[in-house]
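Quick review question:
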């Protein structure tokens, strides 16, 4: 991913484009995010290979883009402009109310407006485009058209790179560039993913059963007054705070998707209400995990230092804690090397795994490391406590064997 223009650099480009169309966006709220079509990314990566995809997205295909939106609360009309990370305008949308008056042109007249826009505004050579389709829709006081072309010099096998221009009445109201994914590929990929979905459903059933067992154990331990409430509350507070901060950090993404049918104050209140409730839910879940797992772990593995003692000042200075950290850090580097070798070997043998890079968090949040802290904390606590500290001793007690 090459960022020749940053988010800040791309805004003047988008504003200049709007001015060239005679649009005055003063008085509108503005928000911008980094955006891309994840389905198109996966399709290109799988069918073209990672190296070829990178070559295509640096040239004729503009996959990575900065999306700018100008809107007014409770007003239908708004504007969007997409600027590629190379600095070209690659998308435009002028949202016009359905009842707004306009011309009722015939298809040939509307197509002429679209072609003139492609040549004079987008500086596209029509000889490089193959016309594909016309769609029309009758509005109360105008006729809207959508025209689609295929770019000839981009070879994607069964797929293609499409150009679409929308003409509402007698004015251009939309422009988009996108990868057209073959329907057969979508069906095949859905079939492939369905196996993973089925496996996940089976896992979730056992996870739910394990969570119910934790609730039962918690009630029993509360009656026996054998629950580390203070430690569990501390973990819960950390989880709550980290999740709430991550929600605040991701506000720009939600703001970009704000529906103008609602008042802005209602949107803000709803967002922060949901953020608080979700954070409290995460905190309660973490509290449950710690409160249930610690007594079971202490009882099932009495020879090992308990979680409560490990997290005490004396435990943090103990030899076992030091050795555990050294081993953990060493294993981190080992697994970095293992994964690198695994994927290099798998690529040579023809295997495929999509590159999952958190572009959204890296480029759409003010403090990217907040999500890193959250995703480091949640799996570490939930997996270690629920499956190892709680699950293994419980199953060993039930089946009288750790092999079960």
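Suggested answer, residue by residue:
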């Amino acid at each position: 991913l090459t960022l020749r223009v940053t988010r800040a650099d791309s805004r003047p480009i988008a504003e200049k484009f709007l001015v060239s169309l005679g649009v005055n966006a003063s008085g509108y709220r503005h928000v911008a995010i980094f955006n891309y079509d994840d389905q198109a990314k996966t399709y290109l990566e799988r069918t073209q290979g990672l190296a070829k995809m990178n070559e295509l997205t640096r040239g004729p295909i503009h996959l990575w883009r900065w999306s700018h939106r100008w809107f007014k609360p409770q007003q239908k009309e708004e504007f969007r402009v997409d600027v590629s990370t190379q600095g070209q305008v690659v998308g435009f949308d002028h949202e016009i109310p359905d009842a707004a008056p306009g011309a009722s042109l015939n298809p040939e007249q509307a197509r002429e407006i679209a072609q003139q826009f492609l040549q004079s505004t987008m500086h596209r050579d029509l000889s490089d485009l193959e016309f594909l389709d016309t769609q029309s829709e009758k509005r109360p006081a105008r006729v809207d058209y959508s025209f689609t072309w295929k770019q000839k010099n981009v070879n994607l096998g069964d797929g293609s790179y499409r150009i679409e221009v929308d003409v509402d009445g007698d004015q251009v109201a939309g422009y988009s560039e996108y990868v057209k994914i073959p329907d057969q590929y979508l069906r095949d990929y859905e079939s492939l993913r369905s196996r993973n979905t089925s496996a996940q459903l089976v896992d979730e059933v056992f996870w739910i059963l394990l969570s119910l067992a934790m609730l039962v154990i918690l009630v029993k331990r509360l009656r026996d007054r054998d629950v580390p409430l203070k430690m569990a509350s501390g973990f819960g507070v950390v989880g709550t705070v980290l999740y709430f901060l991550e929600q605040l950090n991701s506000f720009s993404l939600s703001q970009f998707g704000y529906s103008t049918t609602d008042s802005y104050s209602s949107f803000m209140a709803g967002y922060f209400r949901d953020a608080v409730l979700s954070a409290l839910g995460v905190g309660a879940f973490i509290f449950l995990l710690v409160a249930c797992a610690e007594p079971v772990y202490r009882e099932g593995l009495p020879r090992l230092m308990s979680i409560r003692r490990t997290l005490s000042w004396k435990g943090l200075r103990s030899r076992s804690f030091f050795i555990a950290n050294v081993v953990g850090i060493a294993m981190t580097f080992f697994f970095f090397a293992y994964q690198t070798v695994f994927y290099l070997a798998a690529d040579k043998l023809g295997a495929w795994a999509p590159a999952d890079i958190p572009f959204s968090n890296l480029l759409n949040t003010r403090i990217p490391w907040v999500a890193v802290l959250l995703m480091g904390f949640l799996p570490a606590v939930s997996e270690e406590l629920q499956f190892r500290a709680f699950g293994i001793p419980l199953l060993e007690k039930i089946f009288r064997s750790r092999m079960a």
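Why it works: The longest helix spans residues 183-223. The CA atoms of residues 39 and 308 lie 46 Å apart.
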